[in-house]
Amino acid sequence: MRFHTRKWIKPQDLNPNGTLFGGRLLEWIDEEAALYAIIQLENPRTVTKFMSEIDFKSSAREGDIVEIGTDVVKFGKASLTLKCEVRNKMTREVIITIEKIVMVSLDEEGKARPHGKTKIEYVKDRLED
Ligand SMILES: CC(C)(COP(=O)(O)OP(=O)(O)OC[C@H]1O[C@@H](n2cnc3c(N)ncnc32)[C@H](O)[C@@H]1OP(=O)(O)O)[C@@H](O)C(=O)NCCC(=O)NCCS
Question: What's the CATH code, domain 2-124?
Answer without folding.
Answer: 3.10.129.10
